[in-house]
UniProtKB/TrEMBL annotation:
GO cellular component: kinesin complex; microtubule; nucleus
Upper lineage: Eukaryota, Fungi, Dikarya, Ascomycota, Pezizomycotina
Domain (Kinesin motor) ranges: 1-92
Protein name: Putative Kinesin-like motor protein C15D4.01c
Extent of the signal sequence: none
Length: 322
């Protein structure tokens, strides 16, 4: 009893409580307390172990965020609690449907008694109360097949080996209860072997899927490399086309600018030639005085130097344009 109380105290220590708008000491944990009692007869011939189990479950209550006024981590915790209670309702519904579909196999029902205690507020929230009553109604219809525990199976096997040991007279015939115990143990071993085989097949399938996923990932990586190379080549060719277009446009613009400069130089030369011709005509006129003639000669000399400079500049540009 002392050890049981210590276990209960440890569970209470791990239990979480938080204050909400609905309850100042609202439980934030589901509590499970299992009591298993084993017994066997006291005589010279030790028989198989028997026993019963009592499991007390304290579920954390469902709360509406609007009424509880929770926020932050407490609100997330309340969401998880409500989600777990929703899953409980789904499990109860499935168990109820299974129990209704195999009512003819009533001899496999669990003889242990299951009780669901409902605390409903007659003047509380209608939705919460109806949800609680719906869960309790589903729990009344649930029937669970009895499965022998591993502990009882092992104890039964040890008892059977004790009965049929060579020192106790090997010619003893097992009783019906012993045969039933051995059959239960054999069924449990077969069930566990079948479960192990199923797990092995699932593991093999998972390994195959993993290898397939790795191969698919490798093919995707190769495809990514191919796409990257195609994109690089496409971008490179596009850049080459743009550079060629820009080069042609620049050459055309340069040629046009050169033509305009040549036309400008030609116009200047034409104007200069006309000016020189006019100066020569003025020299021939006898009526012109000497001072004006000297000015014209200086102007003609300046214009000739400018023409020579322009010609040299034009000749210097011509080879680069070729």
């Amino acid at each position: 009893m002392k050890e049981a109380l210590m276990v209960l105290e440890a569970g209470l220590h791990e239990r979480r409580v938080a204050g909400t708008g609905s309850n100042s000491v609202s439980s934030r944990s589901h509590g499970f307390f299992c009591v298993e009692v084993k017994k066997r007869r006291r005589n010279r011939m030790p028989g198989p172990w028997g026993g019963s189990a009592l499991t007390v479950v304290d579920l954390a209550g469902s709360e509406r965020a609007r009424d509880a006024k929770t926020a932050g981590a407490t609100l997330q915790e309340a969401g998880k609690i409500n989600e777990s209670l929703m899953y409980l309702g789904q499990c109860l519904q499935m168990q109820s449907d299974i129990g209704n579909s195999i009512k003819s196999h009533s001899h496999h029902r669990n003889p242990q008694k299951a009780i669901m205690i409902v605390t409903a507020d007659p003047v509380g929230d209608f939705n919460a109360t109806s949800q609680i009553l719906r869960y309790s109604a589903l729990a009344r219809e649930v029937t669970v097949p009895r499965i022998p525990s591993v502990t009882s199976t092992i104890m039964a096997q040890s008892t059977a080996s004790h009965y049929f040991s060579p020192g106790r007279g090997g010619g003893r015939t097992p009783t019906d209860s012993e045969r039933e115990t051995m059959e239960i143990a054999a069924l449990e071993i077969a069930r566990m072997s079948e479960e192990i085989d199923g797990l092995r097949s699932e593991l093999k399938e998972e390994q195959d899927r993993r290898l397939e996923s790795e191969a698919h990932l490798e093919s995707l990586r190769d495809r990514i490399v191919e796409i990257e190379m195609d994109v690089r080549e496409e971008v490179f060719s596009e850049m080459e086309k743009q550079m060629e277009t820009e080069m042609r446009r620049w050459k055309a613009s340069f040629a046009s600018e050169q033509e305009r400069q040549e036309e400008h130089v030609d116009r200047k030369l034409e104007i200069l030639t006309k000016t020189i011709d006019l100066g020569d005509d003025d020299k021939e006129n006898a009526g012109c005085d000497g001072g004006f003639t000297g000015d014209l000669e200086d102007e003609n000399e300046r214009l000739r130097r400018e023409v020579e400079s322009l010609r040299r500049e034009l000749q210097g540009r011509s080879p680069s344009l070729a």
